[in-house]
């Protein structure tokens, strides 16, 4: 059995059995059916050992994350996840490792109704490339470019936790002063991000723009304001803060985690005044925390962070030694 | 400019501008339109340095090949190529190298009408993962599993050349006795394979089964007979032989190149008796060489190579030190 067959075997009889898969793994290509009224949504992400994850990460966490980061991109478009291709490069044949990895990939795919439709296994330094495909009603996809002056800026979850989790994972256990609960909560946000799939779909038609946070709130927000051609004010006092990050990081250092942490996989989205009530109602169904953190203004794409109504001059971008900053 | 932006820039204003790309590079995901009467065809292939290509390969050849091997999978399904995602991992930032690579990718994509819809650039040991997507009329895709006893077996091109080309590339120039013409012809088959895109599409409705040859004729034929549940006789005297391979390899060694060489990216296909005339007519339009090399028989999936009507006992499979054999 090849390694890819081993991965595929974990999908047999799992939630991945979609009727729109006309031909799955085992031929030169997969054959898929896209409903007439829908557009196809496609995203690709690569995770490289030592760049996007620590080399000693568990195969279970890695399998989850590789899927989650791709589903997060689909969520930011408001798409329903459908199919996934998986290309994995492995330094050697470790069947236990691959078994745990594939099992984890199957679990998260089953949870989100995603079918594994193909892929490739090759020998080499550990890396994973996934291409995720989703479906969205035509003309309903959320883009980065739709925010307008006057729209409110929202974020799901509590950005910053994942970055602190990474630091704790890189710190010798004996030097960690946080409680086990705090440490676990922060590390889990790094290792097991939750793609905001249901929230993303429920925001279609309500949010005017959306993007997921992978490189840090400010950096991804900058993409949104540039594409939307307006400014935004981020009110630092309104940034959501988890109890774990509050317990782990001193007050004066908190902002850089929240604004530039990265690896959050939360959604940033813009909401016109008239849709705020509908957004409240829609998101309450999903038990996803969400917070209004600012407002869009006329301008040329600038992001301003304020405290007490005054702009902060500190620069947070580029604080990212672990991730590749391309 | 990030490296991926550099790649994407080469596609601006090129043949890649398809009307079915509703949203291309630059958001969280691409948005694509699939015609109602068509199925989506998806394939993923990874090329790793030192496994699938020589580390010193030119970026131009690598760009061509990375696209070609994926289009070859689409061709084997009879699909029209449409969109491609490109994930590239690079050890360092060499703009000249990337420029040549991207230029070559753009050239071949433009030639085949393919649009680059997204991707990712990461830092690490050189490897490329491409996901190619195509379109095919519903129920018209060619599969591996449709061959029936009595069908004739055909192959395009002259398998074996690419493998000899690889050996010549690995041989010091001073030790090569072949003429420059012979050497160039064989090396070119390895470095610049031609995906049989038009031939594949013209075989739809005529061929009963098809597969592309990437791991060697016998190995890929074995996939077809297993999926189709019948035997096949390959008549060794009928195997097509290029003038270059004839000049480069002694008669008694030729068969192993033709049968087990790999990296050919030719099509193997099955044709029912009543469609032979139509296949002749269809393929003559495309100036693609094609040869009938055997016939399917009742059985359980066995591949038999004969010479003078007698089965040959030699084993060719597994002769593949360069490629990953998974």
Automatic annotation (TrEMBL), chains A, B:
Residues that bind Mg(2+) 2:
45, 73
**InterPro entries referenced in this protein's UniProt entry, alphabetically:** PurM-like_C_dom, PurM-like_C_sf, PurM-like_N, PurM-like_N_sf, ThiL-like
* Binding-site list for Mg(2+) 5: 215
Catalysed reaction(s) here are: thiamine phosphate + ATP = thiamine diphosphate + ADP
Q: Where is the PurM-like C-terminal domain?
A: 148-304
The protein's UniProt keywords, in alphabetical order, are:
ATP-binding, Kinase, Magnesium, Metal-binding, Nucleotide-binding, Thiamine biosynthesis, Transferase
Sites binding ATP sit at: 119-120, 144, 214
What is the name of the protein in this document?
A: Thiamine-monophosphate kinase
> Lineage of this protein's species?
Bacteria, Pseudomonadati, Pseudomonadota, Gammaproteobacteria, Alteromonadales
């Amino acid at each position: 059995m090849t390694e890819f067959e081993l991965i595929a075997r974990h999908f047999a009889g799992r939630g991945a059995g979609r009727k729109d898969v006309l031909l799955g793994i085992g031929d030169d290509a997969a054959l898929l059916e896209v409903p007439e009224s829908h557009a196809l949504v496609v995203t690709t992400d690569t995770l490289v050992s030592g760049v996007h994850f620590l080399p000693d990460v568990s195969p279970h966490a890695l399998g989850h994350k590789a899927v989650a980061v791709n589903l997060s991109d689909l969520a930011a478009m408001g798409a329903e996840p459908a199919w996934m291709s998986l290309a994995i490069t492995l330094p050697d044949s470790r069947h236990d490792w691959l078994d745990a990895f594939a099992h984890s990939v199957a679990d998260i795919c089953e949870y989100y109704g995603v079918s594994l439709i193909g892929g490739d296994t090759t020998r080499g330094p550990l890396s994973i490339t996934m291409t995720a495909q989703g479906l969205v009603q035509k003309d309903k996809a959320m883009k980065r470019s739709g925010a307008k002056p006057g729209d409110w800026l929202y974020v799901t979850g509590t950005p910053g936790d994942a970055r602190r989790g990474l630091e704790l994972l890189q710190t010798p256990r004996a030097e960690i002063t946080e409680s086990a609960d705090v440490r676990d909560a922060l590390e889990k946000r790094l290792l097991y991000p939750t793609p905001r799939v249901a929230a993303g779909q429920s925001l279609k038609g309500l949010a005017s723009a959306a993007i997921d946070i992978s490189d840090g709130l400010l950096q991804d927000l900058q993409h949104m304001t540039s594409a939307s051609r307006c400014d935004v004010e981020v009110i630092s006092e309104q940034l959501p803060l988890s109890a774990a990050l509050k317990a782990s990081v001193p007050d004066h250092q908190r902002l850089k985690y929240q604004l530039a942490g990265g690896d959050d996989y939360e959604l940033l989205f813009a909401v016109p005044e008239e849709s705020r009530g509908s957004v409240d109602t829609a998101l309450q169904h999903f038990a996803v925390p969400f917070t209004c953190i600012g407002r869009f203004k006329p301008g040329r794409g600038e992001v301003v962070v304020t405290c007490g109504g005054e702009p902060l001059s500190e620069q947070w971008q580029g604080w990212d030694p672990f991730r590749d900053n391309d």
